[in-house]
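Reposting from the mailing list since nobody answered there.

I have sequence plus structure tokens for a pair of proteins and want to know whether others read the tokens the same way I do. The first protein:
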Amino acid sequence: MAYALVLDNKVVDIVEETFDVHESMTFHTAPEGCKIDWELVEGEIIDPDPKTPEQIAEEKLHDLRLARTTKLRKSDWTQFPDVPESTRLVWQTYRQELRDITNTYTSLEDVVWPEKPD
């Protein structure tokens, strides 16, 4: 369980256990996903700028693309002209599978990454 430390109705920290604080601050059970700057409204901590399901889906797809780009960058060396053709060809399939990953998956939560060649 996490706790939100609140000052002036704003979450200023999220901690695993409570501790003594100034009387101007209070601890509240932090809801899942709670972040600094969320607000305390009528005793409940809420996201002051909730996202629509479409925005959430787009963020998840964006995170997937970032992870994919990192994997592609880490394998860029395999496509340089001085790399043996046999190595380039083996890695080309892997790299294409990475590029195609968003045709099948929409988030890091459900993605199954292709196996990287040896």
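The second protein, same order (residues first, tokens after):
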Amino acid sequence: MAAYRAVMGVLRVSASVVLLVALATTAVLEARALVAAEPAAQVVVAGAAGVSMDQAVKMAEQRFKARVVRAEAQHDGVRTIYVLKMLNEAGHVWTVRVDAANGVIL
């Protein structure tokens, strides 16, 4: 019975990891599709800011060796901040904020 419980525990953890990776991949694809679907909006943001959201995503993914699973722009008065939710291979999720004017990670 103990062996059965151990195997079931491993299967539950494995299923959870697979589900998390699948959800993260879906979120990345949806975020990139949204950016690609609105090229006019992206050009306006890029023209108003020094760094586009796509550039911020690529920079963060390279720096932290993780995938961006969600990206959004937040406006604080005249300042635009990209809020990027990151996921690494170990399943750790965290948020990175990038100043759209200069690309500095806050």
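Reply #1 (J.P.):
I read it the same way you do. The longest helix spans residues 2-37.
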